[in-house]
Task: structure prediction
Amino acid sequence: VRPNAVGVRHPLLFLIETAAMSGLDSFRSAGSFLPDAFWTVWPVIEEILLFMLGGLLVFYLVPRSVSERRSANDLIPCSARDESQDKLDEGQGMEAFDKGEQFDSMDDQQFSVEVDSIRAMAKATIRLAPDSLSKEAASYLDQHSAKLNKTIIVEAWLEAIAEEDRPDLIVRFWKEAEQTLYPWMTPRAHETLLGAFAASGDQQLVISHMQSLRQQGLEPSAKAYSVIVRRFLCRKDPVAAKSWALEMGRRGYEVPQYALAQILKHFIEGRESAVFLTELRSVATLSSECIGLLTSECYKADDADAAAGLLRHAKAWNIPLSFACKDMMLKLFSRVNTSSGFEFFAQMLHEGIDVSQGLCGKLLSSCAESRNIALTEAIDSYLMSKVNSVSLTTFKTLMKVYACCGLYGRACDLYERLLAAGVETDTVMRGCVLRFATRCGRTNLRRDLSRLHDRQQEPRPVRTCSSLSAIREAGSQGDVPGAVLAFQNLQQSSSADVSALNCAIEACTTNGATDRAQLLVEESMLNCPPNRASYNALIKGFCEVANIRRAKQVLADMEAAGIVPDSVTYNCLLDGAVAASEFSIVWEVLADMERQGSCFDRYTLSIMMKAAKTARDHTNSKRALEMLDRPGVDPCEDCVLFNTVLDACFHFHDIRRLVRVLEKFRTSSLQPSAQTYGLLFKGFGMVSKIDECWRLWNEMLQRGFFPVSITLSCMMDALICNDAAASAESLFHEWKAKIAVNTVVYCTLIKGLASRGESVRALEIWKELKNTGLPMTIVAYTSIINAQARVGDMAKATELLRQMEEDGFRPNAITLSTIVKGYCVAGDIDSAFKVFNEMRKSSCSVDAILFNTLLDGCIRHSQHHLADELLANMDRYGVVPTSCTLTIIVKMWGRRRKLAMAFQAVRTLPAKYGFQMDARVFTCLIGTCMHNHDLDSAVEALGLMRSLPRSCGPNASTYSTLLAGLARHGRCRLAAGVIEEVISFCSEVSPPFDARDLNPDTLRRVFRAFAKFDLVEEIAEPLIVKLKTIGVDVDGLNWRPVTIGSSSPAWREDVAPWRRWPGQSFDGEAETASSSTRSTRDQRVES
Result:
C-alpha cells in the first residue's frame, strides 16, 4: 500500500485502527449488563487491548527484519533504515527511499517528500555509520542512474551532512566521493560544499575548490562568497572572513552589511580596524545603519581612531549619518586630545546643526579629562556667540576645563568676557576666579575680586575660601612668610578655623619649614586648636626632612593633647622611620599601635615589606617579614599589598612564606591585575607549580588581559626555571607576532636555551634580536656570551665580547665574570686570571661576583695556590666578601682536609666584613665535615650556627644534610636528638622553616637505621607521633622492613629488578632457591 501524497498516515494503520475501534464499540454496546465499576477501569483496558492488537498485526503484516526490507531493493544500510523510523512517518520512511524507480513519475509535491526522506536517511547514516556515508551515496546513485534526478539527490545528501554541523565529515565525504558526485553538482551544491569547507577552517580547501570551478568556466555566485564569510565568522575567524569579504567585493558582488559589521566589530575591539577600513574603501561601502552600529561599538571600546576611519569612509562614499551617530562620534572625539573632535564639531556647525547646551556640557566634561584644548576653544566660541541663551553652569564647566589644563589665564579671560557681555556671575565662580588669578599672577583681577568681596560683604565661608586659596597659592610658590601672613590675617578677622591652620601647616611643611609649622600649631592652641589632621601633617613634614625624633615627639604631644592617633598617623611615622632606617623607632611605633589597639591595615603591612627589603641588618629584615605570620593578616586584601608581599618573598627567596601566600591567594577572591599575573607566574615558578602557571595564563587570556612583554617574560622565565625551556620557546614564537616583544623577552629566551646547552640556537635568537632593530643592552650581550661560555666555546664568547665593545657597550663586572666562568669551565685558569688582571689594570672595579667566580674555578681545578693568592689579596682588590664567598672558602678547606681553617673562616669573616651568613654556609660546612668523616665537628657546626650573631639559623636543608650523615654512620641516638630539635622549632607559633621541607629520602634512611639497630619501639615510634603533629607524612616513607625469604630485613624499592638476587621474584616473594643462594642473599641483606 503506497502512502498518500503528503505522507501523513499509512493507510494500513488507518484500516487497523478503524477495525479495532469498531469491534470495541460493538463490545461496549453489548456489555450494558456489566457493573459500573467495570466501566470505570474500562479506558485503561481498552488502551491495553488496542496496543496488543496493533502489535500482533504489525508483527504478522510488516517484515520482521531490515534484511527482509533490503531483499526487495537492497538500497540502504540497515542501521540507517532503523534510524529513519524514529524520524519519518510510515509513508515517508520506506517508500520514498526504496522506490527510487518511481521518482521520474512523481509531481513536485511528491518529490519533495522523497527528498526529505533521503535527507533523513543520510542523517541516520551520519549518526550510525559515518564511515559508510560516501559508499552508500555512490551505491545508490549507481543502482538507479537511469531513473533518478541525480542533481537534486546530490544536493539533498550534501545539505543533510551540512545540517549536522560536521565539517570534518563533509570534507572526508567529498574527498572519497568527488569523482562520483562532481558531474551532478549544481551551484547550490557547490555553495553548500564551500560553506562546509569554510566551517572546517581550512582555507586551502576553499581556495582549491574555487580554482577548480574557475578552470571549468564556472564563477562562484555571490551566495557562495556570503556563505564562506558567514561560516568563517561562526568559527570566530574574522581574519579569514575579512579576506573573503574583500575578495567578494573585488569580484563585483555586494558584501552583506551584517558580515561587514561583524568583522569590523572584532577589529574595533582589538583596535586594528584602520587597515581594514582602508582596504574596504575601494571594494565595498557601508550603510548608514551599519556605520551607526559600528560607531556605538567604537564608543564602547573608546576607539576614536576607528570612529575617525568610519567617518572618512562615510565621507568618501557620501553616506549620510544620523544625528545620533554624529552625537556619539563627537562625544568619542572629545575623550581624546586630537584634532578630529575640532574638525567634526566645525563640520556639524557648517551643516547647520544646532548643538544643545547639554551636549556642550558633556563634551566639555570629557575635554577636561583629555586636555582637548582645540575642541574646548571651538565650543567656547560657539557658546559666546549664544551668550545670552547659555546658562552660567555651562560656562562654569568651560572654566573648569581651562583650569584642569593649567590655563588659568584663559579662565580669567573667560570671566572678563562674561562680565563684558553682561552675564551675572555668582559667588562660587568669583571664588574660583580669585584662585585662578592668584595662580597666574593676575594681581589686578585678584585685587578687584577681593574688593568686591569686601564691598558686597560676602559671607564668612566665602572669605575663608578666598584666604585658603591665597595660603595654598603662596605655599605652591614657596612663599612661606606669605602663607603665614595670610593665615594670621584670617585669625585677626576671627574667620580662621582648623582647615585654614591645616593649609598653613601644609604650606610650611611642603617647603621644608617644619619648625615654623610647629610654631603655628603652638600659637593656635587657644584660638584655633589643631585636630588629628593637623598633627598628621606635622608628622609627615618632619618625616620628609628625615627628622624622625621630632616626628616621634609630635606623636607624644598629640597624645598629651588628648587626641588619639589613628592608623594614618602611625603609618606616616612608620614610613618615615623606614625611609630613614630608624628601625628602633619602627619597633616602638608598632608596639604603640598594639598598645593603643590600632589594627595593622594593608598600608602598615606594605610599609613593613618595604622595611624588610631596605633593612641592612638581617635581624630587622627577619622581624619585618614575621609580620606575615601574625594571625589575621591577609596579604590578599588588595592587589597592591599582594604585589608588595610577593616582591618581598622573592627578594629573600623565602619559599616557605611564598608557598603560604600563594595558597591564600588560591582560596581568596582577589582578581589579579595585569602586573599581578606576572608576579604570580614568577611565584608559582619558584615553587615548581607549572600547572598553576598555565592555569593562570589561560585565565588571564579569558579575562581579556593581553600579555605585555614583562608578563610574557615572567611566564617564560617560570618555564625555563622548571626545565620547560622548549615550552618557553614555543610560547615566544606564538606571541612575538601578536605583541610588542622587547629585548627582555629575547634575553629570557636566550637564558633558557643556555640552560639547555643549546648555544647554537641561542646565537640564532640573538641574531634575530639584532635584525628586529630593538635596542641592544648589556644584558643581551651578557646573556649570549653566557650561553657560549657555559659550553666552553670561548672563541665565540671572545668574539661576542669584541662586538659588544664595538657597539659602544663597556663590559661590566657580570659580563667579565661570565668570561672568567667560561675559561674556568674549559679548565683554562691562566686565561681567566689574564682577564681578571686586565680588568684590574683598566680601573674596572672587582666585585664579589667576579671574585667568587674565579675563586670557585681555582678550587674546582685544584689550583689551591692560586686560591690562596686570591684570598690573601682580597682586601687589596677591594672585594667585600659575601655569604657566597664564605661558602666557597668552606668548600675549599674541606677539599684540602683542613676543617679547622673552615671553622675559623666561619667565625672571623662575617664579623670582620659585616655580612650575614645564610643557611647555605653551614649546610656546606656540615657536608664538608661529613665528607671528612668527622661527625662531631658536624654537630659542632650546627651549634655554632645557632650561637653566632650573624647567622640566620638552620633551615630544612641544613638538618637534612646532618641527618643523612648521622644515619649513614649509624649515630641513631644523635639523629633522634636532632629530629627532636626540629620538632621543637617547628612547633613554635612562627617556625623558622616548614618541617615538610625535610628531605623524605633522608628521613627514610634515618628510620631504616632505627630499624636496623632495633630502635623502632624505643625511638622510631614516639618520633613518628611527634612528626605527624607538625605535618610530616612519615607513613608515606615506606621505611619499615619486610622479610624476603628469611628473617633478615630488606626494603623492596631499594632492590631494582635487574639487581635482584636469585630466589626473589618481582613482587617481593621468595622463590625456591638453594641454600647457598639463600646464604649469599642473607649476606647481602646484612651488608
User: Anything to note?
Assistant: Residues 8 and 89 are 7 Å apart (CA to CA). The chain has 60 helices and two strands. The longest strand covers residues 1042-1043. The beta strands are 1042-1043, 1049-1050.
